[in-house]
Amino acid sequence: MNNKIVFFDIDGTLLDHDKRIPASTKKAVKQLQENGVHVAIATGRAPFMFEDIRKELNIHNYVSFNGQYVVFEDEVIYKNPLPGDKLHEFTQFANEINMPLVYLNEKEMKANVPDHPFVSESMGSLFFDYPLYEPNFYQNQEIYQTLLFCEAGKEQQFIHDYPQFHFIRWHAYSMDIIPNGGSKAKGIERFIERLGFKHDQVYAFGDGLNDIEMISEVGTGIVMGNGHEKLKQVGKYVTKDVGQDGILHGLQWAGLL
């Protein structure tokens, strides 16, 4: 087995603008695996949200929930749920100001309001249906990520009141809430510890703001051509757009294919 590992973000990286995996990406990932390189996913999504992608690409390693739930060869090696007491406190606050929440564990997600246009639009952008309504879902199990739905900028009024949480905007109407200090980079550190790798053996591809820590801290961080401008400033290399064989091009540039 080659002592290298490549982490791929999903949306805008493995998936193109139509939420499909380009043929060149499928071929490149298969070639990596045949070359003995470890292949992993690093995403803000919950595990149940990308099970089909893992099956299609035969991937058994992943960092999910932006680093809060890490799996190596189908075995959970790290988990870091949101603190239950603070989540309860925040839920009460969000209810008072009429901002909906969606709670996620590794298997499913539930909404605390039965219907809201911000939830519909945000989840629809990922091709997911409106979550089932179960407002007390968070009280019964570990929650690794919560989605907050509000217009951009509105969160500035209160996020500083919750230092235990890290807020990451991913949609005009939605933000991820994860434990403060959590990131894809932290999840990747668990892989490095488990495999005994050095940072220069670790590669990552990403396109969004939640990829900044990952791209800047791995040995070789590669940013998609369609990536956020802030992310391009911290990457080692900017490859082509996801729709223009960006992953294949980036892997070739890195000498992995």
From TrEMBL:
Q: Which GO terms describe its molecular function?
A: hydrolase activity
Keywords recorded for this protein, A-Z: Hydrolase
Q: Which Pfam families match?
A: Hydrolase_3
Which PROSITE patterns does this chain map to? COF_2
Q: In which domain of life is the source organism classified?
A: Bacteria
Cite the InterPro entries for this sequence: Cof (IPR000150), HAD-like_sf (IPR036412), HAD-SF_hydro_IIB (IPR006379), HAD_sf (IPR023214)
What's the protein called, per UniProt? Cof-type HAD-IIB family hydrolase
Q: In which organism is this protein found?
A: Ectobacillus antri
